[in-house]
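Issue 218. Parser rejects a valid record. Input:
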Amino acid sequence: MENKTGETDLEKLIADMEPILNEGDYVFATVLDVEQIPRAITVCEIKEKEGITVVLLKKDADSLGLKYEFIASWITLNIHSSLEAVGLTAAFSTKLGNNGISCNVIAGYYHDHIFVDKKDQEKALNVLQTMSKKS
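Output the parser choked on:
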């Protein structure tokens, strides 16, 4: 039975992380008023003092006329990681960094989500799969 609060064992998290590439091109855009963005099209949002950052499909950002600088691929680690787990982000971000891949990480309740430059998506998947026993 799956641990309802998520896995905390680092060795198990890495071995069973099962990286999955989500379809589409994603962007990070910033707005002052999130009311102009339909919630159904956002992946996530975070409030910062300078504005609200939204992550959404590039095609949706384009249709709304939002400006962005970074086109990303979205990789989900398919293991239910605990929000209290220690070391998983450091482990995969170090491996990606050692391979010249920048990553932006967002933790959801169930999974970790990694956004990498679109041009690095295959290389990033390969690095993550090599770390995991489920490649």
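Fixed in the parser; the record now loads. The two ends are 23 Å apart (CA to CA).
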